[in-house]
Specification:
The complex is a heterodimer of chains A (622) and B (198). Chain A is built from 17 helices and 25 strands. Chain A is elongated and about 120 Å long. The N and C termini of chain A lie far apart (94 Å). The C terminus of chain A is likely disordered. With 198 residues, chain B is an alpha+beta fold. Helix content of chain B is 26%, strand content 22%. The chains are: A alpha/beta (622), B alpha+beta (198). Chains A and B meet through strand 2, helix 1, strand 7, strand 14 and strand 15 of A and strand 2 and helix 5 of B.
Chain lengths: 622, 198
């Protein structure tokens, strides 16, 4: 003989419930804090390791509520508060006992006798923080308890020892493929099984046959019946003054494939019969509501509010971040497991030039997950720009045109809110161009500004539209030993390269854009015709060059030594020299490291073809 | 080796019947666009097989429920058994849809903690078997994020299975047994063998 212990209910809230609560609060409830009726459901016990869940889903708020097949509806009351303080300050014991009072009233009035599902109710207190998508909640399932404990006698007896499979199958109501929540069972004179409703208790027990009480048992354990048994025992005790021994059928549906080991499905109902002994002192139906227990406890058996943080799945900003990251992480899964994405994402990129190359480089950097992108440009958006320069729109050209650096930085934030983008409207001083005495201090300031920008970034892209404008940034970057990627466009030719490091100990040193050229930077913009001044290029070229520039950078970053290497392909010259309709050549581009640690290869096959000059400056000392 | 929409519906409904007979909870859900029963009335692609189940598994342990420090006073009740820890239980939901472009079945699934929080990529990677390519995409009918095993290889591996002279009416069952094991969703062998047609 031992005290009968019931398995408590646990809450299982579906994410759709939280969505719906948030939506209803915004659209319907607003600031109202009245109680809201909701519905959940439970099934019979599945597995000894699984708690008895009461499931709440989106349709909890809908009427009429239809529980899924083979599950039982539970009515509940929701109190949703407007602030965390109100949530913490809710009179929890009172709300709980109020709900218990309702059950007690239904027992007294007989309503629960006619409809025993009224015995099962739950209380849910919530606070929904809709800005951060955090939900605080507490769940309680009131059970009326006796002063003296109910005890169980002997061991549970499997149902199959008392009933044949056909008899067990007959428990299900004809036409409804489901067992009633509570039922009575006895055998008549001819040993035939007779079923009855709870309300028939008196007529069932009149001829003193041993009547068994049956119920749909939510517990997966054999010796601990489900919580829903408590209130029906209270009902029997109060209404019909039932005391002493009582056999209880703890009925569970077929387990099927629910267990985790591949055990064959147990089809058909099963369960056990336990013998309980109700206390001699029955509940006084004319008295006050008995003591009530049933707040949900955590694994440390403490009663405390819980909370769930759904920000990562519901906050659009967070969703943007996690989706972009997911896309990149999938690369690591099978294709490139050694890819260091964090290194790329944390590289702060400075883009000198926010024109065609700048816009496309920026977009490509965003796709790689780079989080800090800064633009430097001295011009404004003009009407010919938006078609090629992918961060600008027609409205940016109006009223004289917005400064490009500012417009570009703003647009990046619209594309991906979590990016850290800034624009600086700066005119780069160029060799070969005169500086008048009155301009000296401004130029000095600009140089300092440029210097500090370069210092605060890790990679610098030189994307301007003239040769000489690249000179000063090149010098500053070399002085600070920063990674420089240089891209330039001709009409049908383009250049993408990286500058070598300025560490004197590394030999041989790779050169820069100017080292590898034969002409000194000078004023190339004066006395030129219009088509020589503007960058006139085949439109598709800028997309090619900017993509390669970014891929070059991310490849370089994968190498452990980054800037330091001997044999490295740093100079690539592409020329689109012929335009043939048939794919005559297939060209391959390799960016490979000395020890072939990372092969980053692309294959192009175009109707026209690219002639690649794959120059290796390995043993040359520049 | 592919499957037509009509064949898919027919095999799915058969599977649902067998499942109900064995007390399993697979059900066929047809979305708006036709009646439930005949595939000819259902709009192509707008029906799927679904199953939800609670799994407790030590390898899928989630973090224990976070509670705030405040507590409510209730005397300990000798008649209450200890609340079972629910951080090992997860809700696993599987939907079997038909991919119109690949003409094969495709599996969409989601795993949730009991407090409603869906599994993130790193947790999902622990659930599915190694080497299985999954992606997160929108459920074609419900339009909410679901994880999915990409159907590009399905025709290939199904063709291998069907070279051994298996009947095409068992396409869905064979496919299910392979795919569900690859995402570690338990399926009863009794159900699978009962659903096979001689």
């Amino acid at each position: 003989m031992s005290i009968l212990q019931f398995q408590p209910f646990s809450s299982a809230v579906n994410v759709s419930f939280w969505y719906e609560l948030g939506k209803l609060k915004l659209d319907r409830f607003k600031l109202a804090e009245e109680p809201i009726p909701i519905n959940g459901y439970y099934t019979t016990g599945i597995h000894s390791g699984i708690p008895s869940f009461i499931n709440l889903e989106r349709d909890a708020f809908f009427t009429p509520f239809t529980p899924p097949p083979r599950s039982y509806m539970v009515q509940g009351t929701l109190f949703n508060t407007n602030t965390l303080e109100t949530f913490k300050g809710l009179p929890k014991p009172k709300l709980f006992s109020d709900l218990a009072e309702k059950i007690w009233e239904d027992i007294k009035s007989g309503a629960a006798v006619q409809d025993p599902s009224l015995l099962n109710r739950f209380l849910l207190l919530t606070f929904a923080d809709l800005k951060s998508y955090k939900y605080y909640y507490m769940f309680g399932f009131p059970a009326l308890s006796f002063e003296d404990a109910i005890v169980s006698e002997g061991n549970p007896v499997p149902l199959s020892e008392e009933f044949t499979p056909e008899e067990l199958a007959s428990f299900r109501l004809p036409g409804i493929d489901q067992l009633p929540q509570y039922f009575l069972v006895k055998r008549d004179e001819s040993r035939k099984v007779v079923l009855g409703h709870i309300s028939e208790w008196e007529s069932f027990t009149k001829d003193n046959k041993s009547v068994m009480l049956g119920f749909a048992d939510s517990s997966g354990l054999d010796s601990n019946p489900g919580w829903s048994l408590r209130n029906v025992l209270a009902l029997l005790s109060a209404k019909w003054k039932v005391t002493g021994e009582l056999a209880v059928i703890c009925y569970k549906e077929g387990r099927s494939s629910a267990s985790n080991n591949a055990s064959p499905s147990v089809s058909g109902p099963h369960g056990s019969i336990i013998k309980v002994k109700l206390p001699e002192k029955f509940l006084d139906i004319n008295g006050d509501c008995p003591k009530v227990v049933g707040w949900e406890r955590d694994s440390a058996q403490k009663i405390a509010p819980r909370y769930v943080d759904l920000g990562s799945t519901m906050d659009p900003n967070k969703l943007a971040i996690s989706s972009v990251d997911l896309n990149l992480k999938l690369m690591r899964w099978r294709i490139l497991p050694d890819l260091d994405l964090d290194k790329v994402a944390n590289t702060k990129c400075l883009l000198i030039g926010a024109g065609t190359l700048g816009c496309n480089v920026a977009r490509c950097l965003l796709s790689w997950g780079v989080r800090t992108i800064t633009f430097v440009d001295c011009t404004k958006v003009s009407f010919s720009n938006p078609v090629r320069q992918t961060l600008y729109e027609f409205k940016d050209c109006l009223d004289g045109g917005r400064p490009k650096a500012i417009a570009a930085a703003g647009k990046l934030k619209e594309i991906f809110p979590a990016v850290n983008s800034e624009g600086h409207h700066i005119f780069i001083p160029m060799p070969g161009h005169q500086v008048t005495p009155s301009e000296v201090s401004t130029v000095q300031e600009t140089v300092n500004k440029l210097d500090s920008l370069i210092q605060s970034h890790d990679a610098v892209f030189l994307l301007t539209d003239s040769r000489e404008s690249r000179w000063l940034p090149t010098v500053l970057c070399t002085a600070q030993n920063k990674l420089v990627i240089n891209a330039a466009l001709g009409f049908d030719t383009y250049l993408v390269m990286r500058h070598g490091s300025s560490d004197q100990t590394v030999k041989p040193r790779l050169g820069c854009y100017f080292c590898n050229d034969v002409v000194v930077p000078q004023d190339s913009l004066k006395d030129r015709t219009l088509d020589q001044q503007c960058t006139v290029t085949r439109p598709g070229l800028s997309f090619l060059a900017s993509s390669l520039a970014v891929e070059l950078m991310t490849s370089v970053l994968q190498h452990p030594m980054v800037l330091f290497d001997f044999i490295f392909l740093s100079f690539l010259l592409y020329s689109l020299s012929q335009f043939l309709p048939s794919p005559k050549y297939e060209q391959t581009l390799f960016l490979h490291w000395r020890k072939n640690k990372l092969r980053f290869s692309h294959s192009y096959s175009f109707p026209s073809f690219l002639l690649l000059f794959d120059t290796i400056f390995s043993q040359l000392n520049f | 080796m592919s499957l037509t929409w009509v064949e898919f519906c027919e095999q799915a409904l058969h599977f649902e019947k067998v499942s109900a007979y064995l007390n399993d909870s697979w059900c066929w859900i047809a979305s708006s666009g036709g009646s439930n029963n005949t595939s000819s009335e259902l709009r192509k692609g707008f029906g799927y097989l679904a199953k939800k189940m609670v799994i407790t598994n030590d390898t899928i342990s989630t973090e224990p429920q976070k509670s705030t420090t405040e507590s409510v006073i209730e005397e300990s009740d000798p008649a209450s058994a200890s609340q079972l820890p629910n951080h090992n239980s997860v809700l696993f939901e599987v939907h079997i849809l038909y991919s119109i472009s690949y003409q094969v079945p495709v599996v969409y699934f989601n795993v949730f903690h009991p407090n409603g929080k869906p599994f993130q990529l790193d947790e999902i990677q622990k659930v599915v078997k190694e080497g299985v390519i999954i992606t997160q995409c929108e459920h074609p009918i419900l339009n909410v994020p679901f994880w999915s095993v990409h159907p590009c290889e399905t025709k290939v591996f199904m063709a291998e299975i069907f070279t051994s002279g298996l009947e095409k009416s068992n396409y869905l069952v064979s496919w299910l047994s392979l795919v569900l094991t690859s995402i570690s969703f338990p399926i009863s062998s009794v159900l699978l063998s009962a659903a096979m047609r001689k």
